[in-house]
TrEMBL record:
Name of protein: Nuclear transport factor 2 family protein
Ranges for domain SnoaL-like: 11-139
A Pfam family the protein falls into: SnoaL_3
Annotated segments matching region Disordered: 136-159
SUPFAM superfamilies in the cross-refs: NTF2-like (SSF54427)
Compositionally biased region (Acidic residues): 142-152
Chain coiled-coil ranges: none
InterPro entries: NTF2-like_dom_sf, SnoaL-like
């Protein structure tokens, strides 16, 4: 007997599909993923970018990223899904492996790893769960780095 997926499971699948569309460079799938409601403006913040508002601006940004990225793969960790009625919030860590252009034909370019924490907001539509807003922020400090003790500032470095 097959059970019907819960809202949380459906949202998690939609979240995964968003990243898979970027990995494949699939602008058609990306277009289907985003909320298309004239009464609701979508938004997106890529790490280091200003806020992008409006469906066409957001989709254009993803098309640009996908066209200029030779290779990208997301390993999502710390995925948390919360559903409240017709709205869902997903937080996760994007462990990103990407590669730039190769120096020589037929070779892979250099691979770079990056951590980004992301918040994705979904709305339920007649076509299922669609992304309403994406916000990604780079992780600048590793968990291994020690925090200064209370009352201590960064102070001058001893070189």
């Amino acid at each position: 007997m097959t059970s019907v997926p819960t809202d949380s499971e459906q949202v998690e699948r939609a979240n995964t599909a968003l990243y898979e569309a970027v990995e494949r460079g699939d602008t058609t799938a990306m277009d289907r993923m985003w909320l298309d409601d004239p009464d609701v403006e979508v938004s997106c913040v890529h790490p280091g970018w200003p806020v992008l508002r409006g469906r066409s601006e957001v989709l254009r940004s993803f098309a640009l990223i996908m066209a200029s990225t030779e290779y990208i793969q997301f390993f999502l960790t710390d995925v948390e899904v919360a559903v409240a009625g017709d709205t869902a919030l997903v937080t996760c860590t994007e462990n990103i492996l990407s590669g730039g252009p190769a120096e020589s034909e037929g070779e892979l370019g250099p691979l770079v790893g990056q951590l980004v924490v992301a918040t994705n907001v979904f709305r339920r539509s007649g076509d299922g769960w669609r992304i309403w807003s994406h916000h990604g922020s780079p992780v600048l400090a590793s968990e291994d780095e020690e925090e200064p003790e209370e009352g201590e500032g960064p102070g001058p470095s001893a070189a």
